[in-house]
Amino acid sequence: MDTNRILDLVAKMQQGDQESFALLYEEFSDRIYKYIRIKLPSDQEAEDVLQEVFIKTWQGSKKLQLDGLNLSAWLYKIAGNTINDHYLKSYR
Q: What is the pLDDT of residues 53-90, one digit of tens each?
């Protein structure tokens, strides 16, 4: 998917368009899941964290600035932070 199409979908997602969110999920979820799965010991934990990542994506999308946005990098940052949160919760 090209950058302009991604930015268009993000803009629509910011306005609450669930179909655009679903298309972005389809585009990025496999890559983000593989990244998460490398960091976590089980498929179930990775699936839970992936779900949290995309919940945070939906919630945080309204604050995104589209100018110069690298959505992939933003998703990986959310994933890394969510993995850290997961480990912090499990150690407490």
A: 999 999 999 999 999 999 999 999 999 999 999 999 88
Alpha-carbon distance of 15 to 61, in angstroms, equals: 9
Return the closest-CA partner of residue 81 out of 55, 62, 63, 42: 55
- Listed in sequence order, the DSSP H helices in the chain are 3-14, 18-39, 43-60, 71-91
CA-to-CA distance for 39 and 19, rounded, in angstroms?
29
- 33: its two tokens: 């899941």
- Rounded to two decimals, the pTM is 0.93
Q: Quick one: tokens of 66?
A: 């589209």
